[in-house]
């Protein structure tokens, strides 16, 4: 599934691609659009995670790869790959390896939600963290 780029920016404006794990992320997508500068275009794709079962998460990475390929072919200048469980299953090293391979294959900068969180914590100098997940 995919949504076409928004009409915010003119052709030639930066295009940010996003891969979300499910259509449930549509609300956060709307919030993001409200925050972005008007000259940023976006295009979003949704991975086929329906039930949130472990098997779906474990099998999501090949689907993500195809969706990233679509966004790169569309001309995305940057791709944000979202969703925590598929990358937790890969582990830290596996996530880094997947992102490196995607960047090599699609010649596009790519980052995950977890990478954003780790970079933010590092920037804040956080050395220890206690987290109570959902």
Could you please describe the fold and organization of this structure?
This protein is of the alpha/beta class. Helix content is 47%, strand content 16%. It has helices at residues 26-35, 54-58, 60-74, 85-106, 113-123; strands at residues 2-3, 15-20, 41-46, 78-81, 110-112. Helix 3 runs parallel beside helix 4. The radius of gyration is 15 Å and the shape is globular. 28% of the residues are buried. The mean pLDDT is 86.
Write the layout of secondary structure elements.
Blueprint: E1 2-3, E2 15-20, H1 26-35, E3 41-46, H2 54-58, H3 60-74, E4 78-81, H4 85-106, E5 110-112, H5 113-123
Parallel strand pairs: 2-3, 2-4, 4-5
Antiparallel strand pairs: 1-3
Helix pairs in contact: 3-4
Quick overview of this protein structure:
The chain is of the alpha/beta class and 134 residues long. Helix content is 47%, strand content 16%. The model has no long low-confidence stretch (mean pLDDT 86).
């Amino acid at each position: 599934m995919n949504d076409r780029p928004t009409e915010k920016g003119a052709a030639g404006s930066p295009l940010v691609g996003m891969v979300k794990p499910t259509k449930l992320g549509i609300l956060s997508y709307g919030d993001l659009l409200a925050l972005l500068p008007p000259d940023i275009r976006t295009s979003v794709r949704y991975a086929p995670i329906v039930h949130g079962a472990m098997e779906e998460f474990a099998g999501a990475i090949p689907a993500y790869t195809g969706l990233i390929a679509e966004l790169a072919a569309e001309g995305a200048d940057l791709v944000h790959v979202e969703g925590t469980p598929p990358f937790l299953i890969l582990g830290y090293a596996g996530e880094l390896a997947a992102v490196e391979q995607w960047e090599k294959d699609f010649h596009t900068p790519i980052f995950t939600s977890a990478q954003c969180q780790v970079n933010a914590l590092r920037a804040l100098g956080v050395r220890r963290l206690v987290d109570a997940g959902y």
